[in-house]
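Could you show me just one protein sequence together with its fold in token form as a worked example?
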Amino acid sequence: MKKNNQSIELEYYLKESISPVHYNLKNRKKHFEIRSSLYQLLGLPPNLIYGKDVLEVAPGSGHNSIYTATLLPNNYQLVEPNPIGCRDIIEIFKKLSIRHTKPKLKKTTLGNFKTKKLYDIVITEGWPGGYLDFDKKMLKKLSSFVKPGGVMLISFFPPIGGMATYLRRLISNRIILNKDNFQNKTNLLDKAFSSHLKNLKSMSRSNKHWIQDSLLNPYICVAHNTPELCLKILNNKFEIYNSVPKFTNDWRWYKSLHGKSKKFNENFISEYHKINHSLIDYRMSGTRRSSKKNNELEKLCFSFAVKTKKNEKFGVKKYKKNIEPFLKKIIKNIKKDLPKNVYLSLIEANNLLKKKQIDINDISKMKYFSSLFGREQCYLSFIRK
């Protein structure tokens, strides 16, 4: 656990004057259907938002907020600290011609946001993690605005799902180490990884924004979180309602779920640890394997993320000494149980990172790793007890 008293991600956004959370809105119907599907999977049909009080923290540029606004909540409060994001929110709602609830925008951080009001639904995406003390404090504060019986919707960044991005960050820092211009870095990484990103058929952001938010964003390697960490932070005040992807099918008889036998959270965590290895590759469909192996894999990926953060700018020697040993253990853990392409992808990435020099062609022509992307942004919905 690392102590920090401010948002690393916000500091980065402000420094570079960016809000890299723009989506393709040319096909608004498609965008709305994607958001509708997410909400439905999390147990939030339109009628659950209609007429309710909704708080959304860190909506970025507001591209996702316009869908929520069209569901006609009674009161829709947005809290966004990034001036670029605030400007985009104001602009996008000016142009929104279909019927919607006009949101109230508070230009401040969650840390500085004050209200006595409690909300039926509280939403945030892209943060906070569960590793930094600051993030834990913010998740607790966010949860304090939920009414009893209300719903909180958050995203979380599982370390297993982050492995492909951690490796791409390591590769990125080998080719941009001496280049200090932000746009030059973005353009160089676009050339290097565009062949990789072509394999993400449902990607809704531009390459540029993905690169700035994943490969250049210093928060990524400390953003990791898990359902278990969330529950510890929330201190038994919430029950897990749903998740994306779906981690559990609860086959228990509902008549037996009373008193100490309810155990919704315990059941969810037990099921999660049988399936979370599948997060390493978005193409996997949720096969099961040993919880013991998966617990070991999650711990190794946590350590890999932390070691990446500490050593990513120091070249091949530090990689071999401080990071490669963890990758070898991860490869050993998955070798017998996961698809061969995942194993070969990690081997290929490791071989590249051990080279003294890496160039753009080495990256763009990767055979296996170019298709490996994890499920790095997952979702949880909670009900406040």
In short: The beta strands are 53-57, 75-79, 104-106, 119-124, 146-156, 238-244, 378-384. Residues 155 and 379 are 4 Å apart (CA to CA). The first strand starts at residue 53 and ends at 57.
